[in-house]
């Protein structure tokens, strides 16, 4: 009776005391991850302002109405190739770790953009884009890395805006660089000679800029990016050691020693690490009586249920989990919705610059509203590049400020369903802006861009959170996010091709809105799928429940340690 009363008193003291504090927000590693990631959206987005002009300069066709189809092929080559290898890269990251796969993907991007800049014809351009896709599976691996860095739901709305923020910055810098540096002989005739290398390869300069960004990202990743894989993150990393050595020369050894104590144990070499640290948990059969008493006095979440630290329990569950358990119905539905979202948003991204580049038809086609009309804007690359950069600036603000606020208010699930239902309206109204007077055209384009980016910055992070929370364990996140990236890559590859085909057919037949309305029909299907999404209790919910139960349930506490000074006297 006396022991039971002690247990009750001890449990009451813990429940009355302060809640277990949240782990610190992983701002340092998310920042480093962002610096590594920034090069890829710059490289990807920089081609959009000039791709139509680049394909035209290849002289693959004299019919300008066909150029959009070939431009869509070039845009899709990367994502279609990425589709074929994304799942493989995701599985590989489960085996060898996230960091080496990310670095290999970035290196592949750097090689491909250099080849693309030297492309003398359409086929070399297609091959360069495809090579970049084959060697890059970073979309899924990045999502996995973020999921492993963020261990509590309270940090998710903020953390899951980091990669979209990086993409937004790339959407600003990429189109700006592509628009201003393409054809430098024409843009800067006093600096670049028509007989020089940039005269023979007019689209090389923006790709060299992208390659430099990739090189910087690879260096940052090698020196400062830490592994997050549960098995691999405790292994010695020579790159991290080199980065610390360089920082000691810059900031001084005392500062680095101070920071070293704050860094996780994974940067300590295998030779320096003891076989069993003070915090390691002994297997039940090897515990002494005092060890059992001391270890059971800790909370369950600080022992074998620490899902983020990996441990043998999670590894065993991951190895035994059948594919049906990993790819549950909830996971599959979120992946399908992600693919549909990627299809119609990528269709928009590839259609908009083509829409703005298209010249009005030489022979006007009679307009018969509400559906029969054909016209174009005929804007140059610099104007389009500036518009796409403004799009990136707005999406940066929307991602940073709007999404965390809305997601915290209504939740990721409800937010994604609302966006799915409203998306079709965007595609229905967009083609009609070409009918507006010239004085209103540019303003209407900015309005459409703001509309689209608001929806994108709310929908994509919500879907990423839903996918992460549906995963049964962090050790399967690489495979799940790899499958999601593979699905999205296929849809991103098909989006520009399908939309480019319907855009060409629409312009020839007098229905310039045809491709937009096809994308809207796909968005309607996406709305139906989005409404089927559920958010089952996942590993993060289970961990929170374990923490609360451990704090509030006195029966989880064994007889206090005899040497505990806080133990109440008999």
From TrEMBL:
Annotated Gene Ontology cellular component terms: membrane
Record field: transmembrane: 30-52, 67-89, 101-124, 130-150, 162-181, 201-225, 330-348, 383-403, 415-436, 448-468, 480-502, 514-533
Biased composition (Acidic residues): 543-554
A molecular function GO annotation: transmembrane transporter activity
Protein localization: Membrane
PROSITE patterns: MFS (PS50850)
PANTHER family for this protein: MAJOR FACILITATOR SUPERFAMILY (MFS) PROFILE DOMAIN-CONTAINING PROTEIN (PTHR23504:SF15), MAJOR FACILITATOR SUPERFAMILY DOMAIN-CONTAINING PROTEIN 10 (PTHR23504)
The protein's name in its UniProt record: Major facilitator superfamily domain-containing protein
Record organism: Cercophora samala
